[in-house]
Write a structure and sequence with these properties.
Layout (H helix, E strand, L loop, with lengths): L8 E4 L3 E8 L3 E6 L3 E6 L5 E4 L10 H16 L15 E4 L9 E4 H23 L5 H17 L21
Antiparallel strand pairs: 1-2, 1-5, 2-3, 3-4, 6-7
């Protein structure tokens, strides 16, 4: 069965004459002369008075995923995907307490790495907000220096990154 496009005119046994005003993969939205707007399954039997081409854009899952990632990046400060070094994939961190009688904890390295990336992305958003704020230039410089020191404190975790270009970089020694 070929899908009808927006603007197609139909005759439905129960609702009468109508015009298709929207189409999804499962339903038509039809505005009927006597019964107003109704949604009907595409499989519903009706007479086609005048068929219009189906011009509804179909979107792949990949397109939806890319759009969602773009929105998340814009509003949540999510950065580009960052890869963990292959040697750490599927690994576990063991947290062993220094006191007897206290249970240790195993943490998946992938989970820990994801948290580090979220921290980095949020720091970047903070940097952007500072740069675009109405703060005095001296205040901006002081806050930038704090952020740079935070990055420096996080360089320990660079061992987890697959690419050196993703590393944390702190203050350069003079």
């Amino acid at each position: 069965m070929k899908l009808l496009g927006i603007g197609s005119r139909i005759l439905h046994k129960e609702y009468g004459k109508g015009v298709i005003t929207n189409v999804s993969s499962k339903e038509y939205w039809v505005t009927f002369i006597d019964n107003g707007l109704e949604t009907i399954n595409i499989d519903t039997e009706f007479e086609v008075i005048d068929a219009a081409e189906n011009e509804v854009d179909t979107v792949s899952f990949y397109d939806v995923e890319q759009s969602l990632l773009s929105i998340l990046k814009k509003w949540n400060g999510l950065g580009e995907p960052v890869a963990i070094a292959d040697k750490w994939k599927g690994g576990t961190m063991k947290l062993v307490p220094g006191q007897a009688g206290i249970a240790g904890k195993d943490v998946p390295i992938d989970t820990f790495f994801h948290k580090i990336i979220m921290l980095r992305d949020r720091l970047r958003v903070m940097e952007q907000k500072i740069n675009t704020s109405n703060l005095e230039e001296l205040e901006k410089v002081e806050l930038q220096q704090y952020i740079t020191r935070i990055y420096g404190s996080l360089t320990t975790f660079n061992v987890l990154f697959k690419l050196q270009s993703d590393y944390f970089v702190g203050e350069k020694s003079k």
